[in-house]
Amino acid sequence: MPLQSHVQIGIVGKPNVGKSTFFAAATMIDVKIAPYPFTTIEPNVGIGYVRIPCVCRDLGVKDNPRNSICIEGNRFIPVELIDVAGLVPGAWQGRGLGNQFLDHLRRAPPVLIHVVDMAGATDEEGRLVKPGSHDPLVDIEFLSNEVTMWMVQMLSKDWDKLVRLVDYAKKPILDVLYDRFSGLGITQAQISDALTKLSLDKKPLSKWGGDDDIKGFVSMLRELSKPMVIAANKMDIPPKPRIIIRGSLRRLVVSIGLFP
């Protein structure tokens, strides 16, 4: 029987990139897999295991952990994986299964694995195309933007009311923003960190520079509260597209500041 996990990870990405294949391989659970978009409608949930060295070897003891499994000096930590429906451009405006996906994301874990078709063999909506004809970097950027715009929409709704609560009723800004994002598992500490990093912590809401400040704050908050790990899928492709992949990877690390 799988151990109960207190660690959750969401598996996200556009349709038809291998999210469910990854989920099935990690959990050993049979799920519907097919080479067309929106094979997954309702989330798949299962338990995978992370292997780390067990301290029993260092301490010279035989252990019997309650929250994991120890096999020959290796500790297997249970992790709950949630495979959700694919996301397409404009999902935050309701396109595709956007509203359904984002509702699943509302309940999703604080860490996300973004499965990307690095072969460039599917277009932005998951339709099959010639390998190498679609830029994987576009997919990486679009998913982050979709989640950000969804959160922007959530925050900017009744913006004037938020301004009155903070600037005139003198309700603490952390309390107001925490209430607005209460369904996303975002903490007050993360909100405070985002405000401080952007020097918005002492700036009245009425003085925020419109959409720029709102989107900048939400983008920072998303990075802090729902960080994404890129899973580069479909790397076993012909030699020619590999050049495209290497170029996309380099542009990716440049875009997030790893290379000068």
Commentary on this structure:
With 260 residues, this protein is an alpha/beta fold. The protein folds into two domains: 8-149 and 227-255, P-loop containing nucleotide triphosphate hydrolases (Rossmann fold); 157-225. 40% of the residues lie in helices and 16% in strands. It has nine helices and six strands; from the N terminus they run βαβαββαβαααααβα. The chain has helices at residues 19-27, 56-59, 98-106, 136-156, 159-168, 173-180, 188-197, 210-225, 239-255; strands at residues 8-12, 44-53, 69-71, 74-83, 111-117, 228-233. Strands 1, 2, 3, 4, 5 and 6 form a six-stranded mixed β-sheet that branches. A hairpin with a 2-residue loop joins strand 3 and strand 4. The longest helix has 21 residues, at 136-156. The radius of gyration is 21 Å and the shape is globular. The N and C termini lie far apart (49 Å).
Which short descriptors sum up this protein?
single chain; 260 residues; alpha/beta; Rossmann fold; 2 domains; six-stranded mixed β-sheet; 6 strands; disordered C terminus
Summed up:
The protein has helices at 19-27, 56-59, 98-106, 136-156, 159-168, 173-180, 188-197, 210-225, 239-255, and strands at residues 8-12, 44-53, 69-71, 74-83, 111-117, 228-233. With 260 residues, the protein is α/β, with parallel strands linked by helices. A hairpin with a 2-residue loop joins β3 (69-71) and β4.
Helix share, percent = 40-55%
CATH class of the largest domain, anyone?
Alpha Beta
Outline, from the CA principal axes? globular
The CATH topology of the largest domain, please? Rossmann fold
- Structure class: alpha/beta
Spatial extent as radius of gyration = 21 Å
Q: How confident overall, as mean pLDDT?
A: 82
How many runs of DSSP E, i.e. beta strands?
Answer: 6
* Overall number of structural domains: 2
Report low-confidence residues grouped into runs of 5 or more.
254-260
State the CATH architecture of the largest domain.
3-Layer(aba) Sandwich
Question: Percent of residues in beta strands?
Answer: 15-25%
H-E string? EHEHEEHEHHHHHEH
Straight-line distance between termini? 49 Å
Number of helices: 9
For this structure, what is the CATH homologous superfamily of the largest domain? P-loop containing nucleotide triphosphate hydrolases
For the biggest sheet, the summary is: 6 strands, mixed
